[in-house]
Amino acid sequence: MGASDDRNEEPIPLLQLGLPSPLPMAVDDDDDLFKSDETVNSSDHKRTGNTWTASAHIITGVIGSGVLSLAWSMAQLGWIWGPLLMLLFAAVTLLSSFLICNCYRSPDPDYGPTRNRSYVAAVQCNLGKKNAWICGLLIQMNLYGTGVAYTITTALCLRAIERSKCDKENGSGASCDSGNGWYMLLFGVVQIFMSQIPDFHSMVWVSIAAAIMSFAYSSIALGLGAAKVVGNRAIQGSLVGVSTSTAMQKVWRVSQAVGDVAFAYPYTMIVLEIQDTLKSPPSERKTMKKASAVSICITTFFYLSCGGFGYAAFGDETPGDLLTGFGDFGPRWLINFANACVVLHLIGGYQVYSQPLFAMADKWMADQFPRSSFVATNHIVKLPLLPPLSLNVQRLVFRTAYVASTTGVAMMFPYFNQVLGVLGTINFWPLSIYFPVEMWLRQNKVSPWSKMWTIFRSFSAVCFFVTVYIFAGSIQGILAARFS
User: Do 306 and 67 form a contact (C-beta atoms < 8 A)?
Assistant: First the structure.
């Protein structure tokens, strides 16, 4: 994907790419230097963000269901490579975020009059329209895959709650497992109703609730892991991780573990949206870099704690989803509450990741069929005890089909860790390494084969081969589980 020479073409509308900003855009009314036709909008809000608000946005965006897989990843890697890998990904993510921070303003990263308010806009400004379309496509794939992963995770948590209730009523080991399929279908039905929310800006309450649930279940998982280690009076695990019957099996397991860590860290898709909320002076770039450093340190500490305590508690028996492994340990109500928090978080999280795709489809249909009543007509539906609902037939049909497709894929490939590994490959090299590196090289007009050019291109190449390794291992894991 080489950089093209069409950087001066008209910007791609973000809704056309399905990437509306999840955070309010704003302007500095008190700073004439930053005003331009492209940056000022009468409907914008004033930027008031600072280091701490940006850090909160980052932590909320990064810490999600991926944290539940880190103990399993640690178990595959062992006590040496597990923590080292998390620290390495933390460093790479921080470097990537620093590179992207430089792309918010152009041509000057601190005082440039043009604001790139989204990742795709920054790619187009620096690398051209073709690269922007490729970037947009990768982001859409990631959003769709996250919907599949959330469907799988929800089923695992609901199944764990059912298992807990069954053990309490019938004794440990009783047979009353209905499988994951029914829970995935139930989640799909809920999402069909949730997906009728018109747009991203109508679901602020969903995002807030999802963030609270994320912190709740992550903290409970951490606490239960630490308590189990204390209860065991021993630290489980080994320096090299879980033993396997063959060396090749170990290679594939390590690959999937690296993919899970790669999925848990990056937040490249939201860096510029968060930066667009920051006030200046100081420049947004300086504030964002400070916020990135603070949030990555906090996130890494949290990840190391969750992964480490989980592995220390379970050793070679560490489950893929940490919360599903506690069983009889700890208060049943607390474990069930944590799993319920995961479900509530994922119900909202699914919509957060799906609304950009829905917006893209709505925009495309409106452009293609502007006079169609199927597309343009809204019907008011009144339900008992609920406010009137505006229902659009095109939105109902497309979004129902979309939810049905993610549910179907999840039912065909219900493999939590392997699916996260595949998503990690989409997140890691293309979006977190390639585009940030190429934009930095273009911005700084770095000469080919110079020292800095060689260093950054080598770094990108190494990360590419890591991504290929992750992808191969994750696909192998999915196929092995599917056909075993």
Answer: yes
334 membership: H or E segment, kind and range: helix 332-368
Residue 236: pLDDT over 50:
yes
Residue 72 and residue 256: Cα distance in Å, rounded? 10
Tell me the longest C-alpha to C-alpha distance in the chain.
Answer: 71
- Are the CB atoms for 196 and 391 separated by under 8 Å? yes
**pTM for this entry:** 0.77
**Alpha-carbon gap, residue 312 to 322, rounded angstroms:** 12
From CA 403, how far away is CA 187, in angstroms rounded?
Answer: 9
Rounded Cα gap, residues 279 and 27, in angstroms:
9
Res. 202 pLDDT band, cuts 50 70 90: low
Contact 390, 198 (CB under 8 A): yes
Residues 35, 39, 43, 49, Cα dihedral to 10° = -80
Phi, psi angle pair for 392, to nearest 5°: -110, 130
Q: Which burial class, exposed, middle or buried, applies to 186 when counting CB atoms under 10 A from its CB (0-12, 13-18, 19+)?
A: middle
For the chain, the distance separating the N- and C-terminal CA atoms, rounded to the nearest angstrom, is 37
Q: Is 46 helix (H, G, I), strand (E, B) or coil?
A: strand
Contact partners, residue 171, CB within 8 Å, separation at least 6: none
Question: Is 378 in contact with 392 (CB distance < 8 Å)?
Answer: yes
Tally helices (H) and strands (E) across the chain: 15, 6
- Give per-residue burial for 195-218: e unless 16+ CB within 10 Å, then b: bbbbebeebeebbeebbebbebbb
Q: Alpha-carbon distance 29 to 39, whole Å? A: 11
Q: What is the pLDDT of residues 414-439, one digit of tens each?
A: 877 777 777 777 778 888 899 999 99
